[in-house]
Amino acid sequence: MRSGHEWAFTAIYDQYWYPLYKVALHKLGQKHIAEEIVQDIFTRLWNERRTLPGTALNYYLFSAVRFEVIDWIRKAGPRSRYLAYYQAFASQADHCTDDEVAYNELLHSIDESLKPFPPQTREIFKLSRIESWTVGQIAEFMNLSDKSVEYHLGKASKAVREYLNETMLILLLSFLA
């Protein structure tokens, strides 16, 4: 396969596709996602065939499935929570537009409160609080230490909290007046 022989790749594909698919399906419970993950692994295997590590192919493929499943679960966590919330309240279609407007206004308020900060701090806050990334993921993505990310998050969180508290106070006073 390293030499580019398609017949070798086909033999590997035929031998490993179904066992890899079963592992992914068992962990995820969703056929189309399991198929996608296994297909991506085989695509990557073919594209990187010349630079593959010297480890056993069996170990390499099953490790790849394991890591891909973990990545998918990690990324899908926030999405699945929002999807479950949306499905639970889908019958209340009247409120969807109101909820979307309120959500957009909240995002706008958060953006306003973050304006004084540098772009890096704003991005760290959004990745953490809006995209649900962990400190470790943000640190790795932005090539920073965990402590730096925590520092930026602390400053930005305090500013957003204060801004939203002031905004809520103004709204409350306007309703009472």
Description:
82% of the residues lie in helices and 0% in strands. The protein is mostly helical. Helix 2 packs antiparallel against helix 3. The longest helix is centred in the middle third of the chain and has 32 residues.
**Averaging pLDDT over every residue, what do you get?**
81
Q: Which runs of at least 5 residues are low in confidence (pLDDT < 50)?
A: none
The total of helices stands at 7
Beta-strand level of the residues, as a percent range?
under 5%
Order of helices and strands: HHHHHHH
**Helical content (DSSP H or I, runs of 4+):** over 70%
Keywords:
mainly alpha, 7 helices, 177 residues, elongated
Reconstruct the topology from this structure:
Blueprint: H1 6-28, H2 31-47, H3 57-88, H4 93-114, H5 119-130, H6 135-142, H7 146-176
Helix pairs in contact: 1-2, 1-3, 2-3, 4-7, 5-7, 6-7
